[in-house]
Amino acid sequence: MSSASEVFESFIESVREICAQESPGETRWQRASDHLRTLVANPEFREESMSWPAARGQELILHHDEEHGFFVGGLVRIPNHEAYPHDHGHTWTCYGVLYGDEVTSLYKRLDDGSESGKARVEKTVDIPTPTGMVDIVGPWRIHAESGAGERSVAITLRSEIPGTYNQNLFDMETDT
C-alpha cells in the first residue's frame, strides 16, 4: 500500500503530464478531475488530511507547480461554515471533498453587469457534496460552499494561484 505522500506525488505527476499534453480549457480539467477523484478516494491521503489545521478564510498551500502554473490547496472548514456567492474569475478549479459533508449552491446572474459594483444574483440549486465528491468549477461560475454539519476538509486543484487574479464576491442583500 502506498503512503499518503506517494499517492500525492503520483497525483501531481499525473496533472503535470496532463498539462504538458492538453491546452488550457475544459478538457484539461476534466482529465485532471479524474485523478483528483482517485486522490480523494485514497484512505491514507484522506486520513492525513484530518491533521491539516483549520484556517478560516485561508487555503493551505500543498503544491504550486512553477512549470505548469497549477496550484493545489487544502481547505479545512469549521462546522456549519457558509461562504458568500463568488466566482473564480477566468480560472478553473477542481474541488474534492476529503471529509465531511458540504452543499454547493449554484447561482445565476440576473443583471447584465453594465453597472460597476452592482450585481444581482439568484440561487438556482443546492447540490449535496459529501465525502468523495469532486466538482469542476469553470470560469465565472457563481457558487458558494457551505457546511452540512461537522468540520469538512477539501482539496482544490486550481489553474492559477489564488489571489493572483480578479474574482467576484456577491452580496445578495445589497446587490453588490
How far is it from the N-terminal to the C-terminal residue, by CA? 50 Å
Mean pLDDT: 93
Reported for the largest beta sheet, the result is: 5 strands, antiparallel
Tell me the number of strands: 8
In terms of structural class, how would the helical and strand content be classed? alpha+beta
Strand content: 25-35%
Q: Give helix % range.
A: 10-25%
Strand order of the largest sheet: 1-2-8-3-6
Anisotropy-based shape? globular
Rg calculated over all Cα atoms: 16 Å
Which residues sit in consecutive blocks of at least 5 with pLDDT less than 50? none
N to C succession of SSEs: HHHEEEEEEEE
Count of helical regions: 3
Main attributes?
176 residues; alpha+beta; 5-stranded antiparallel sheet; 3-stranded antiparallel sheet; 8 strands; 30% strand
Characterise the protein shown here:
The structure is a single chain. The chain has 176 residues and is of the alpha+beta class. The chain is built from 3 helices and 8 strands. The strands form 2 sheets. The protein has a 5-stranded antiparallel beta sheet, with helices on one face. Strands 5-4-7 form a 3-stranded antiparallel beta sheet, with no helix packed on it. α1 (4-21) runs antiparallel to α2 (26-41) and α1 (4-21) crosses α3 (43-49).
Topology (SSEs and partners):
Blueprint: H1 4-21, H2 26-41, H3 43-49, E1 60-64, E2 71-77, E3 93-99, E4 102-109, E5 121-129, E6 134-137, E7 143-147, E8 152-158
Antiparallel strand pairs: 1-2, 2-8, 3-6, 3-8, 4-5, 4-7
Helix pairs in contact: 1-2, 1-3
